[in-house]
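User: Continuing from earlier, I have the next pair ready.

Assistant: Great, send them over.

User: Here they are, in order.

Assistant: Folding the first of the pair now:
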Amino acid sequence: MVHSQRGGKEALFVYEPASFVPLASIQGTQENRHTYWYQCDQIGAPLELTDAQGRIAWAADYKVWGEATLRTLARTGTDDAPVGRRIGNGPGVGWSEGTSDRSSALPHIEQPFRFQGQQFDEETGLHYNRFRYYDPAVGRFVSQDPIGLVGGKNYYEYGSNPEDQSDPWGLKGGKGKPRPVQDKSGRPTASPHYSLWKKLTIPCEILSGSREDHFRWANEQLHNMLQADPSLAKTLGQEVVDHVKPGPKGGVATTSPPGLTWHHSAQDPTQIELIPRGQHRSPGPVQETLHPNQQGGFKKLSCK
């Protein structure tokens, strides 16, 4: 979540680069906004929010599997309620019985995040974890893992050790510092899908040729497309335009354009696709799509 709004109040959330670890939040009305900074633990779960003066504006304790216990945060000397009084689970700062002077306490803070990538759902008490919901009371997901055994033997398990593991997508957890959730192209690393610039059908007469034969033909087709649609050059970049342009003697490059890869589709080997090189090499579920059983489409070619 990047932005939320309740009535005239809104909240904007900023994250650490290429992750779901929250960094800061700007909240309030158009006339009165405040910036709060996140203090997170080793797996990216928020422990505190502090204001511009360094004062705690939101705080929570966590049970082993991520169930949060929020605290009232009344400034010492101005409220009867002590700093750090526990009040239970919830999306933000609340009030406990015995608080007598609410007007002088800190304002309500919109803070729905729990374990990295999770958002507290007020209606169910569950944590929204992208691909499925997580129950922090029992430390299990409420539905099976959509990536099956790729995510582990237990379809409902969050991880074996919540002290050093995180699962920001609700698919497959990892140890140590949370891995980037996006590759260099901005594609989620947990996604089995990839971006596609162009898809071409290889002519039957060259299907039995080498990769270089296929790449040469594909580069020639891309050059013809660029000639027919000059606006495409602005999208792909001058390096790509120069790469596929025939040389002085009419020769065409037999390698993929810079930053891109000609990929033989594993689902239909007669199709050759132009995709971002970073995605072609990216780890994660996308490799099962690109190279199922570690085999690409080129090895499956046959003229039909």
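And the other member of the pair:
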Amino acid sequence: MAGKKIKALVKLQLAAGKATPAPPIGPALGQHGINMQDFC
């Protein structure tokens, strides 16, 4: 069984504990179909 293929590589530099769905994080991840609730 093959694993999932990488669709995109998104690099973000964030302060610890400060990830929120607000810009610029939300739009950067949302355009790649990443669920904000799972990420934040």
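Worth noting for the second one:
Helices lie at 25-30, 36-39. The chain has a mean pLDDT of 80.
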